Amino acid sequence: MFGDVYSGKRVFITGHTGFKGSWLAAWLKMLGAELTGYALPPAYPDSHFELLKLKNQIRHIENDIRDLKPLKQAMADARPDLVFHLAAQALVRESYADPKTTFDTNVGGSVNVLESVRACDSARALVYITSDKCYRNVEWEWGYREPDVLGGDDPYSGSKGCAELVFRSYRESFFNQKPGINVGVTRAGNVIGGGDWAKDRIVPDCIRALRKKDPIVVRNPKATRPWQHVLEPLGGYLLLGARLFKSQGKFTPSEFNFGPDKTSNKTVEEVVNRIIGVWGSGQMVVHHDDHAVHEAMLLQLNCDRAWHYLKWRPTWHYDDSVEQTALWYKAHNQGADMAAYTHSQIEKYMRDWKGGDV
């Protein structure tokens, strides 16, 4: 898969202790990569990273991307062939509570990653992950395309728009002038999957309530999102990384959306009811918070560019994505070996793969 690009390659991941990063690390290990992970310690009990026992399987470094010197040294020591930058403060509501840390991490930390890659002569590919919230969201009914206007009103969205501008500046000023390396930026969002324990995210909130046999409290039941399993964008990142690595010249374009098709646009209410159905019990209650921070009601991506240049398309659609997510948490609740269960879901996804070839 991915043209066997990752087998035996040195890969450096920032944010590997997080939700998406731990899934990516597990997948890369299965593909035969030699991994170095650089991140803060896991933020939640029963973190996916710890359940996978990744600490003992990769070169694991706990540190903060806001500190340039150790990051630069770690990357120099690792001599990666490919770099995936996922480390971020990733929550909208947390960005309202602590905007400075959000900007320091998502903008300043990303500058440090780019500086470290720029100084690393071994790196041949960089995949720089931001978010669908980098776009200025006017909540129109069609998907945002890569050239659309960047920037959001809340601190998290604003920080991701800024991170995109930083990437563009480094690409044009440095990486396009540096032979032997290709860089790309990816935008995906509203990802679901097992091992996400973040606060104020609908799936973890559902699972916490279901485990306690409490009602699931929902703020905006009619809010619509394009739901996708975590393996969907990660497959896109890996495909893009492989193409960047194998390209003989400069690979263009650099910006890519990875999102589900329109049939995956469902309301929060529909998702909650689907999770309850897979779990086998539970109920939803609506609680409108008049003092809640603003969150977009509609946001979706147009992924035509990923299809045209990478032949990438979604593999698991809405039903598969929600079912596989709920089944992961159900297995965890029943005491299953979650490393083995995670690997089985990745293997199933690879068997089902429709996302393109290198």
Based on the model shown, name its key terms.
358 residues; alpha/beta; Rossmann fold; 7-stranded parallel β-sheet; two-stranded parallel ribbon
Task: Please describe what this structure looks like.
- This protein is of the alpha/beta class.
- It has helices at 19-30, 48-51, 68-78, 92-97, 99-118, 155-173, 202-212, 231-246, 268-279, 304-310, 318-333, 338-352, and strands at residues 10-14, 34-39, 59-62, 82-85, 125-129, 182-187, 191-192, 216-218, 224-226, 228-229, 255-257, 265-267, 284-286.
- It has a single domain, classed as NAD(P)-binding Rossmann-like Domain (Rossmann fold).
- It is globular and about 55 Å long.
- The relative contact order is 0.15.
- The mean pLDDT is 94.
In CATH, the architecture is 3-Layer(aba) Sandwich
Number of helical elements:
12
Task: Indicate the structural class.
Answer: alpha/beta
Number of extended strands: 13
Radius of gyration from the alpha-carbon trace, in angstroms:
19 Å
> What does the average pLDDT come to?
94
Tally the structural domains: 1
The coarse overall form would be globular
Helix content: 40-55%
The helix-strand sequence is EHEHEHEHHEHEEHEEEHEEHEHHH
Please render the helix and strand layout as text.
Layout: E1 10-14, H1 19-30, E2 34-39, H2 48-51, E3 59-62, H3 68-78, E4 82-85, H4 92-97, H5 99-118, E5 125-129, H6 155-173, E6 182-187, E7 191-192, H7 202-212, E8 216-218, E9 224-226, E10 228-229, H8 231-246, E11 255-257, E12 265-267, H9 268-279, E13 284-286, H10 304-310, H11 318-333, H12 338-352
Parallel strand pairs: 1-2, 1-4, 2-3, 4-5, 5-6, 6-11, 7-10, 8-13
Antiparallel strand pairs: 9-12
Helix pairs in contact: 3-5, 5-6, 7-9, 9-11, 11-12
